[in-house]
Design brief:
The chain contains 35 helices and no strands. It is globular and about 80 Å long. The chain starts with 18 loop residues before the first helix and ends in a 5-residue tail after the last helix.
């Protein structure tokens, strides 16, 4: 990383530790209950530093629900670190407005809160707000704010100011700033070198040399550079535009690849690639095929792949993609012909070549589908299709949806897509989005608009799917917002995700337990186990028992041990022994499957 991150657990920032904590640190191990009582009494009496000391104790014991009001009292008393801790806790819980409120209570006087607020705004897409608070935090003495603010300046191309501030932060001992400064300096040297090489090619009027001068820009190792410094995307686009002006059709395609990073310029990018195709660059057709497939334009994708194969006298990856398209549509004989036309087969494959392995895997998938009638188009739907077609031609959206649904079941995906689009209802668009994203090769957040109308009508599954798309795209914040909406609508897997995120990423077992319980209500076994285990750990054995029984009935391997512990805690020793015997019988299987990791989850019940 070349900037400071805010991935923290719910704890206080470094600062002044109240003397009360030091005085009783030894007693805490000897008598934790007495220590808690002492600190609670001190906090209730309003003794200096006691709010925070008691909040820290509760937080350290995983009792964040009880800690939050005491953190709030400390923050209201002027403790900036308490404000920051509250903000971190609420952010980890996905309560972003509340997190922002607590950061703002102290951001104007505390560098740590200014940093947290800036990060929160940056993650929400408010670049101007983030820069403002990084600036304020730097003025308050936060070197992290100085570094991150400088990186943001570099991201929009203010190189000189960014380097100057990174040098200052580096001089203050921030190694992150030193690394970022070296990265930017190297990047600017590379940029100057690419410009010089392009200028030489322009002077000679050599299109091929102009393109070759920029080849390093496509190195996969530079992907992170473009993500972190968007200004470099604009620089790359300008360089390729220069190479295209010299006459390189290939440069038009690469210019388009950089333009396509901005969704609002999608049509502009596609037009450039089509222009490159018109100028005779065969590879442009393949790119157009990939883009069409990722956008869910199945017929168009197939046409461009065929064009790429014909123009290039055998384009191996166009053939592979055609094969995969045909597999998805159960045109299996045609799919096999395309895949074997790549020249890769089971006998001659190179097991260390990832590309060849993909082709062999696709061939194996064809064999598996042929061997499983359940994965072939169902005959009963083929018989019903003519009647559904007749009703669709005379009817309205419901009939169009029904016909599209039948076509989808028969794997006639391009036709199904046309009828789903014609229907245009939230239900039809949702079905179209799922068909394209989950089985049609479409990718990325461009599919989200198909799900949004159904989500707006309260469809929990649609909201969950939007969260999943954003999660797979790496946008955790947006994913968390949508999973929360889905969970509030009753979606069990969304609640499970929120619980896991809260526990594993945020260190907040109480919040996690609530989400696990909600997930368990939908009938999911793993979160029922997780909720029950959490309850046993905090001594709520009566609450845990029914959840752990659900998990045992669902054959969860770890549940018998924890059910035994719950029963033991309830004083039902004989029942506990029976379940411990069940746990002991399955424990060797756990060890074989998970190795020593199993011992961390379940102590040996034998």
């Amino acid at each position: 990383m070349v900037e400071h991150s805010s991935q923290e657990g719910p704890r206080a920032a470094p600062g002044e530790t109240p003397a009360t904590v030091d005085q009783v640190a030894a007693d805490q191990e000897a008598d934790p209950a007495a220590e808690a009582a002492r600190l609670r009494a001190a906090a209730a009496a309003g003794q200096p530093g006691a709010y925070r000391a008691y909040a820290e104790l509760l937080t350290g014991r995983g009792r964040l629900d009880e800690a939050l009001p005491w953190w709030a009292r400390a923050a209201d008393a002027g403790d900036a670190d308490a404000s920051r801790t509250l903000a971190i806790c609420h952010k980890d819980r996905g309560e972003f407005a509340e997190a922002e409120r607590w950061y703002r209570t102290a951001a104007d006087r505390d560098g740590g809160c200014a940093f947290g607020l800036a990060r929160l705004l940056q993650e929400a897409g408010d670049a101007a707000g983030a820069e403002k608070w990084y600036e304020r935090g730097a003025a308050l003495g936060s070197v992290e704010c100085k570094t991150n603010g400088a990186v943001m300046l570099a991201a929009r191309g203010a190189w000189d100011t960014a380097l100057e501030r990174l040098a200052e932060a580096s001089a203050e001992g921030d190694e992150t700033a030193a690394r970022a400064r070296r990265v930017i300096q190297d990047m600017l040297r590379d940029l100057a070198r690419w410009r010089e090489a392009l200028a030489r090619a322009e002077a000679e009027g050599d299109p091929e040399e102009a393109y070759e001068a920029l080849r390093e820009l496509l190195d996969p190792d530079r992907k992170a550079m473009f993500e972190r410094y968007p200004r470099m995307v604009a620089e790359a686009e300008a360089l390729y535009a220069g190479a295209a002006a010299v006459g390189s059709a290939k440069a038009l395609v690469d210019q388009a690849l950089f333009i396509a990073r901005d969704p609002s310029r999608w049509d502009e990018a596609r037009a450039l690639v089509e222009r490159a195709h018109g100028l005779g660059y065969d590879g442009a057709a393949y790119v157009l095929g990939v883009w069409a497939e990722e956008n869910g334009e199945l017929r168009t994708a197939e046409e461009w792949y065929r064009t790429a194969d014909e123009a290039d006298d055998g384009h191996i990856w166009a053939r592979f993609n055609l094969g995969v398209l045909c597999v998805r549509q159960r045109r299996l004989d045609e799919a096999e012909r395309w895949l074997r036309a790549t020249g890769v087969d089971e006998e001659s494959r190179d097991p260390f070549d990832e590309g060849e392995e993909r082709i062999i895997t696709a061939l194996e998938s064809i064999a598996a589908i042929r061997a499983d009638p359940e994965r072939m188009p169902p005959a009963e739907w083929a018989e019903r299709l003519p009647g559904l077609r007749a009703r669709a031609e005379e009817g309205g959206p419901d009939d169009w949806y029904a016909y599209a649904d039948a076509l989808m079941r028969l794997y006639r995906l391009p036709e199904a897509a046309e009828w789903y689009r014609k229907a245009g209802t939230p239900r039809a668009l949702l079905a179209l989005g799922r068909m394209l994203y989950e089985g049609g090769g479409a990718k990325g957040v461009r599919m989200v608009p198909y799900y949004e109308p159904a989500a707006a009508e309260g469809d929990a599954g649609a909201a969950y799917d939007i969260g999943r798309i954003h999660d797979e795209a790496g946008d955790r914040r947006t994913a968390q917002i949508w999973f929360r909406r889905a969970a509030d609508l009753g979606h069990g897997r969304a609640a499970w995700w929120l619980g896991w995120t809260s526990e594993e990423r945020g260190g907040d077992p109480q919040h996690a337990e609530r989400w696990y319980v909600r997930a368990a209500r939908s009938g999911l076994v793993p979160p029922a186990f997780l909720a029950g285990r959490s309850m046993v750990r905090r001594g709520a054995c009566a609450e845990a028992e029914p959840l752990l029984r659900i998990a045992c009935e669902g054959d969860h391997e770890e549940a018998p041990y924890w059910l035994a512990q719950a029963l033991r805690g309830l004083g039902r020793t004989e029942e506990a022994q029976r379940w411990l015997r069940v746990a002991a019988e399955t424990y060797p299987d756990l060890l074989r499957r998970y190795g020593d990791m199993a011992r961390l989850a379940v102590p040996d019940p034998r």
